[in-house]
Design brief:
There is one protein chain. By secondary structure, the chain is mainly α. 84% of the residues lie in helices and 0% in strands. It has one domain. The protein has helices spanning 4-18, 22-42, 50-66, 71-99, 107-153. The mean pLDDT is 87. Keywords: Membrane, Transmembrane, Transmembrane helix. The chain crosses the membrane at residues 20-41, 47-66, 78-97, 117-141.
């Protein structure tokens, strides 16, 4: 059984052997996959740009999060990014539906508008609550990372 100090030392030795911190790389990759997926979902109604947003979120998120010093810092920062995306998801998902009433007249256009506004309000509130939870968990993960970094410096 390894203690946190020996686990950190083992990870440092493994990193020296390959040049890659695999634990951080996998953590960054998983968080980037979630970031890209949420971004693609948010832009699903925006003229087919969801795959591009997914790739940008995946590659950009993985690169950015891999630069973090610890896995907990990568998770915390990834959760901050996801919290921002969660707030924007209902807006980006429902606004194109709300404003695309082409070919619709009368009651059909009114139904689309009412449904979009209801979806925006209801899902906006749900995603706001989820964003608050993700932000709080991200805050504690980043706080843990700062404590670990301060303890290793001292």
């Amino acid at each position: 059984m390894s203690t946190p100090d020996t686990a950190t030392a083992d990870a440092a030795v493994a990193e020296e052997d390959t040049g890659v911190n695999w634990g951080l790389a996998i953590t960054a990759g998983i968080m980037a996959l979630l970031i890209g997926g949420l971004g693609a979902w948010a832009t699903a109604n925006l003229f087919g740009i969801a795959p591009v947003v997914f790739l940008i979120g995946l590659v950009g998120g993985a690169y950015y999060l891999y630069q973090k010093p610890l896995k907990s810092a990568a998770v915390g920062t990834g959760l901050y990014i996801m919290a921002i995306e969660m707030i924007l998801t209902p807006i980006m998902f429902y606004l194109p539906v709300l404003f695309s009433t082409e070919g619709q007249e009368g009651a059909e256009a009114a139904g689309t508008a009412i449904g979009s506004v209801l979806g925006l309000v209801i899902w906006g509130f749900v995603f706001l609550l989820l964003a608050i939870v993700a932000g709080v968990i991200g805050y504690f993960a980043n706080r843990r990372a700062k404590k670990k970094l301060n303890a290793s410096v001292n």
